Amino acid sequence: MNSVINRIQQDHQNTERLLQLIERETAHLEHGDFTNVPLLSDIMHYFVNYPDLYHHPLEDQVFAVMKKRDPSSAAKVDQLYSEHVQMAEASEGLLERTMELQGNAVTPRGKLVQEFRDYVRQYRAHMNREEQELLPAAEKVLEAADWKSLEKQFATGADPLFGQILQRQYQSLYKVIMAEAGK
After folding, report:
1. Phi, psi for 104 (deg, rounded to 5)
2. N or C: which end of the chain has fewer CB within 10 A?
């Protein structure tokens, strides 16, 4: 397997860890228990600043080459592009709402719970479609030169949470993730 697909799959594994934390905090919110809103805000900040800016553009480029090499994949690739736009908008909206909550804004709890649940469900369905259908198809049709070009193009954009250098703003989130991993 090549390094581009490895990177995408590692990002998906890391994303799943964050989706699990969102689910946990959403359950607390739904039941009126203490909800770690700063944690939710940190997670949504991460989604806006890494997957939406680096991970999805990498996938978009992989699937653009796939679409060029296999025009029959166009409908699936176009759907994926559309989902990336929708997910970015949802990430920004949830970041905004969590920041408002931190500022003591009043938000209908049921509506926010549903937004987070929808987000998690859609994100997982999206990743599953990529892993089950699109990445295997890309592996079949992209050539070695395509992968080499993609590796070069996306050599930058290190993950600020799961990468080699942890950015200061994600230190609290990282500690929670490590604590969860130790359970």
Report:
1. 70, 25
2. C
Model confidence at 183, pLDDT cuts 50, 70, 90, reads low
The pLDDT, as a whole number, for residue 154 is: 79
Token pair of 124 as six digits: 């997982």
Q: Considering the entire predicted model, what is its pTM?
A: 0.93
pLDDT of residue 152: 86
Q: Count how many residues are written for the chain.
A: 183
Q: In the structure encoding, which two tokens stand for residue 136, read together?
A: 């295997």
d(CA 14, CA 2): 18
Q: How far apart are CA 60 and CA 34, in angstroms?
A: 38
pLDDT at 1: 55
CA distance 99 to 178: 24
Q: Residue 77: name the closest of 94, 91, 93, 64 by CA.
A: 64
Cα dihedral value 53, 65, 120, 100, nearest 10 = 20
* Domains delineated in the chain: 3-181 (1.20.120.520)
What is the separation of C-alpha 106 from the centre of its chain, rounded to a whole number of angstroms?
Answer: 27
Residues 52, 91: contact at Cβ < 8 Å?
yes
pLDDT of residue 123: 97
